[in-house]
Amino acid sequence: xxxxxxxxxxxxxxxxxxxxxxxxxxxxxxxxxxxxxxxxxxxxxxxxxxxxxxxxxxxxxxxxxxxxxxxxxxxxxxxxxxxxxxxxxxxxxxxxxxxxxxxxxxxxxxxxxxxxxxxxxxxxxxxxxxxxxxxxxxxxxxxxxxxxxxxxxxxxxxxxxxxxxxxxxxxxxxxxxxxxxxxxxxxxxxxxxxxxxxxxxxxxxxxxxxxxxxxxxxxxxxxxxxxxxxxxxxxxxxxxxxxxxxxxxxxxxxxxxxxxxxxxxxxxxxxxxxxxxxxxxxxxxxxxxxxxxxxxxxxxxxxxxxxxxxxxxxxxxxxxxxxxxxxxxxxxxxxxxxxxxxxxxxxxxxxxxxxxxxxxxxxxxxxxxxxxxxxxxxxxxxxxxxxxxxxxxxxxxxxxxxxxxxxxxxxxxxxxxxxxxxxxxxxxxxxxxxxxxxxxxxxxxxxxxxxxxxxxxxxxxxxxxxxxxxxxxxxxxxxxxxxxxxxxxxx
Length: 491
Ligand code: ADP
Description:
This protein is of the alpha+beta class. The protein has helices at about 10-15, 35-40, 45-50, 60-75, 120-140, 160-165, 170-175, 185-200, 250-300, 310-340, 350-365, 385-400, 445-450, 460-470; strands spanning about 20-25, 30-35, 80-85, 90-105, 105-115, 145-150, 155-160, 210-215, 220-235, 235-245, 345-350, 370-375, 380, 405-415, 420-425, 470-480, 480-490.
């Protein structure tokens, strides 16, 4: 080819072109390639000249290339083609361009190809595609709804989570603004003002912070979301990226908890008020009752032996005032327990003697016979007034809830470092479902509350007293057979 008559300018163009240029004989033998061709495919001139061009075409593109060349030579068709050369390193090099056929007297003599190296473009395109794919994965696989808007507030991105949370598909929302879709009417003005303020001053108080706010669902319902917005400056203006999550469930739970808390506080306040009222009322009632009792006893002393009926009646009045005093004291104890001021005054006692004496006194006012089956010798530290109260309550319950029976059994047994006292009756018994409830304040088993008088506080107070002694109180019972109430005290 040295002898070819190239004009110097054309030679310059040929040698310095970035495009890959070659001249081939009609059968495909390489006559001439330019330096860009050699450099790009990493061959030496002597390696390629005289060889068939088809050796330098990637096998995947061979058919396509051959067909294009035939069309060029036989039909003089010039058509852009993309195919791959194969470099000396066996790497594909994408070429995009055209081939022409040169004729002499109407006979095809040679072909000429000029191709751009598209490999770098393809790599760049691939990178863009990959980063696009990564962006899509980021947008669609995360837990948050992601919305991207431009500074005209038009929605550019709306991921699948956003579709799920708001019910709008991307097609529904594309090109719309937030203000006309998911921002509730009451926030629209503030949102628009905020946007304008930011574009004027670059100041956005809610940018890069997380706020809890409500948003509109496609169905028109408002619900709570967690929202944080970031901004990024692009060549053609600002982009705003909003990350949102639906927190309506959490909010509902929170609101429910707050409601419950308020209810609890209200009922506690109400309870405290009641306790306070009970405390004041029982105090106020105690004074006139004490006076009635004093006058009754005074009058009794003034009666002579002939005034039997008067004496009898006065004794009844005295007994009922005692009962009233007992009930008032119980009520007072309940309010003391609630206010945490039921204090014990403990001394060392001979429990065996104490139990015996207490039961003896109780026998005077009890219809049933109190049978002491066991009373072990034990000494312990206790508040005798309060223990008397517990025993009196258990004995009187045993008698009260076993009408028609004639005795109750008491046992006191020393076991290791405690004493266990039991009070057994053969009365109506308690359904196992209610057995724990009987120790609750003001609880009374339905049936017994109709037939028997009471407040439902004796066992509640007793449990408190025993617990404050470090002991336990419990019951075993069978309906229609009877009950046994136990308490234990540490020695
Ligand atoms: P009250 O006897 O004044 O109702 P208590 O607190 O002493 O209050 O008892 C609570 C409830 O437990 C009673 O209303 C009754 O239903 C049940 N109860 C208590 N002792 C017995 C018992 N020995 N046998 C059957 N039921 C009992």
